[in-house]
């Protein structure tokens, strides 16, 4: 969700219009495969991650390398031709772009390989769950696995023949059923959330599996809220009551709260609640102080959407990514050759008041800072300017 995104991260939104499936972002057929001749670097970022060109899901840390997957248009600077872009880094600062990890190629994803998440299985094997859209606009949940685990960069991913894994059955809205979360393990079964909507009620459906292949829908939604519209990019994870350290998604205990974050398609921003995970019932109950919907807590009150966290076991922290659609007019995006960035990665933890999350940029960003520049005893005159030596104006 390039227009690109993180796990995501940017989730793509659809509605049915005269039988045609479209994105909530306006579709520009004349531009979506039009590449820029010259990529403008003037405002291309250095602190923030973005692909070298065009529109820019689920991040992970695996065997010493950070991976970020994102919704990406390899052919143009507007929405369309969506694949899973893939970049890697050892320090969250310097990124290497690889070939797309997932491209539409099967009947179940021929109209789009949309957002999803990664999960590391106990065998230390990563697996991607993602939403595929078929030619009728039906959304299903599918999986991909590395073609070669000995490749440290995990360059190639394959789609096994038993896809799709999860179909929109039993009353689920087939055109509003997307963005599977990172899975967690509890009482002998994997659990995963999928976002949906029915009659303006936002819904997070829960699915269970013993083997990560055969999934069964729970009898009741994991959580839902009226008048919130489509829930995209659900993210569910534990936070410690006593420490800033991050926790594995499967960690359970008395000394944790849980966070449920969703991205509101109607409002185009994220909100989260803090609450209790009732493990016996497989339901989530927000605290009394946590409000669902438009008045809920937010990671960021700026342009920030389709966020995704992941647990970094190397430094025992939970890292947050989010999509910043700082795009110009469509024609300007095409001219400069790119649109959208990822917000800087941040660590998140529970505030001591246990009523909200706190966050801070990851420490690696400090390496991008230059020397301190000081100026004093400078008189500013009307209409004059003073050049500050030792810094550059652009990122």
From TrEMBL:
Keyword annotations of the record: Glycosidase, Hydrolase, Signal
UniProt keyword Hydrolase, yes or no: yes
Annotated GO MF terms: hydrolase activity, hydrolyzing O-glycosyl compounds
One of the protein's GO biological processes: carbohydrate metabolic process
First and last residue of the signal peptide: 1-23
Presence of keyword Signal: yes
Domain Glycosyl hydrolase family 32 N-terminal residues, every copy: 48-361
Coiled coil: none
Pfam families linked: Glyco_hydro_32N
Family assignment from sequence similarity: Belongs to the glycosyl hydrolase 32 family.
Protein name: Glycosyl hydrolase family 32 N-terminal domain-containing protein
Species classification: Eukaryota, Viridiplantae, Streptophyta, Embryophyta, Tracheophyta
């Amino acid at each position: 969700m390039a227009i690109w995104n993180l796990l995501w991260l940017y989730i793509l939104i659809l509605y049915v219009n005269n039988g045609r499936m479209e994105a909530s972002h306006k579709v520009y057929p004349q531009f979506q495969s039009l590449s820029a001749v010259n990529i403008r670097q003037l405002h291309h970022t250095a602190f923030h991650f973005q692909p070298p060109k065009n529109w820019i899901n689920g991040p992970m840390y695996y065997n010493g390398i950070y991976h970020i997957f994102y919704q990406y248009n390899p052919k143009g600077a507007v929405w369309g031709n969506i694949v899973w872009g893939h970049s890697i880094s050892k320090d969250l600062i310097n990124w290497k772009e690889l070939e797309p990890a997932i491209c539409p190629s099967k009947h179940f994803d021929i109209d789009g390989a949309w957002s999803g998440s990664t999960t590391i299985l106990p065998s230390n094997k990563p697996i991607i769950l993602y939403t595929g859209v078929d030619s009728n606009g039906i959304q299903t949940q599918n999986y991909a696995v590395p073609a070669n685990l000995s490749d440290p960069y995990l360059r190639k991913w394959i789609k096994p023949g038993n896809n799709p894994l999860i179909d929109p059955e039993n009353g689920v809205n087939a055109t509003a059923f997307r963005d599977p979360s990172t899975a967690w393990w509890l009482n002998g079964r994997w659990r995963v959330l999928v976002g949906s909507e029915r009659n303006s009620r936002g819904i997070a459906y829960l699915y269970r599996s013993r083997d990560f292949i055969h999934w069964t829908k729970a009898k009741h939604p994991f959580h839902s809220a009226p008048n919130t519209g489509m829930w995209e990019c659900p993210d569910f994870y534990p936070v410690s009551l006593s420490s800033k350290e991050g926790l594995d998604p499967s960690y359970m205990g008395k000394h944790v709260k849980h966070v449920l974050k969703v991205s509101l398609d109607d409002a185009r921003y994220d909100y989260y609640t803090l609450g209790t995970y009732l493990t016996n019932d497989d339901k989530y109950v927000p605290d009394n102080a946590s409000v669902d919907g438009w008045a809920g807590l937010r990671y960021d009150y700026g342009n920030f959407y389709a966020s995704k966290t992941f647990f970094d076991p190397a430094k025992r922290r939970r890292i947050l990514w989010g999509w910043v659609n700082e795009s110009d007019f469509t024609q300007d995006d095409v001219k400069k050759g790119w649109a959208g960035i990822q917000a800087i990665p941040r660590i998140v933890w529970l505030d001591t008041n246990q009523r909200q999350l706190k966050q801070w940029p990851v420490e690696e960003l400090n390496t991008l800072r230059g020397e301190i520049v000081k100026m004093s005893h400078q008189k500013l005159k009307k209409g004059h300017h003073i050049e500050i030596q030792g810094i550059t104006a652009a990122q």
